Amino acid sequence: MSAITIEKIEKSFCATPVLREVSLSIADGEFLTLLGPSGCGKSTLLRILAGLEVQTGGSVSIGDRVVDGVRPKRRDVAMVFQSYALYPHMTVAQNMALPLRMRRLSSWQRLPLLGRFMPGTNAVVEEIDKVVMRTAKALGIGHLLARKPGQLSGGQRQRVAVGRAMVREPAVFLMDEPLSNLDAKLRVQMRAEIKELHHRLGVTFVYVTHDQSEAMTMSDRVAVMLDGELLQVAQPQEIYDDPDDRRVAEFIGSPK
Ligand code: ADP
Ligand code: MG
């Protein structure tokens, strides 16, 4: 079964085409990377999958459901951004608990402050605390729960952002250049950690990077993008050994 089916997605900003009939099927549990130079449309495609941007044409299905027009929170996806997008005034624990609190509150009651003191809800708060603690420990940030993002290193902030996506237990992780703000050594270490996460969770990852070696070492398949087009989708070795056309070969720097 396909986890994600992207059919002839088009996107224009003010009549300028940014995505041109992009079609792609991503298998359940696959680690697929969108690889291409800056400005080729990777983030736009990922944001369309997340529901943060509306396509001009075409259709997206997640699982067996067409999600066009479905709000981001109802898509069973979680996105990790390059900039981490943490709330600076909240602690690590509060940042990580936020998606769960929003979910519970929207189905239980819509008054967060009152909700804490209502009978029965303490159990929910405790349960959320447990999930946050467990997730933070798994990511090696269990000792940082009381800190605020400003008191963390780049690598720690990145882990918090991943943790906040994890607590939602999504069927699909969308990651937009999550390592590009880290120094080279940490970037290589975090590659391995993200891969470990993928193995452990067994869910689908759609990963975006402009970094070839990142794409080649982490992915089951790589989708090479240039100027809003998908040029080739294949296993890393195949893209290197047998690029479909000259533009792929030039970008990858392989001999064709
Ligand atoms: P990438 O992530 O591959 O660097 P993007 O998807 O961010 O590329 O951008 C693709 C193109 O779309 C770029 O030319 C960018 O300037 C343009 N673009 C992206 N978002 C917007 C927007 N909100 N309004 C206008 N143009 C945009
Ligand atoms: Mg981008």
Report on the architecture of this protein.
This protein is an alpha/beta fold and 256 residues long. Helix content is 38%, strand content 25%. It contains 9 helices and 10 strands. The protein has helices spanning 42-50, 92-107, 112-115, 121-138, 154-166, 184-201, 212-218, 236-241, 246-252; strands at residues 2-13, 16-27, 31-35, 57-62, 65-66, 77-80, 172-176, 204-209, 221-226, 229-234. Strands 6-7-8-3-9-10 form a 6-stranded mixed beta sheet, with helices on both faces. A hairpin with a 2-residue loop joins strand 1 (2-13) and strand 2 (16-27). Helix 2 (92-107) crosses helix 4 and helix 2 runs parallel beside helix 5 (154-166). The longest helix is centred in the middle third of the chain and has 18 residues, at 121-138. It is globular and about 55 Å long. The two termini are 34 Å apart. The structure holds adenosine-5'-diphosphate (ADP) and magnesium ion.
Provide the succession of SSEs.
Answer: EEEHEEEHHHHEHEHEEHH
Number of strands: 10
User: Runs with pLDDT <50, length 5+?
Assistant: none
Outline the biggest β-sheet: 6 strands, mixed
Which structural class do the helices and strands define? alpha/beta
- Helical proportion? 25-40%
Strand content: 25-35%
How far is it from the N-terminal to the C-terminal residue, by CA? Answer: 34 Å
The number of helical segments is: 9
Rounded to the nearest angstrom, the radius of gyration is: 19 Å
What small molecules are bound in this structure?
adenosine-5'-diphosphate, magnesium ion
Kindly report the spatial arrangement of strands forming the biggest sheet: 6-7-8-3-9-10
- Basic shape: globular
Mean pLDDT metric: 89
Family: Belongs to the ABC transporter superfamily.
GO molecular function: ABC-type transporter activity; ATP binding; ATP hydrolysis activity
Domain ABC transporter: 4-252
Keywords: ATP-binding, Cell membrane, Membrane, Nucleotide-binding, Translocase, Transport
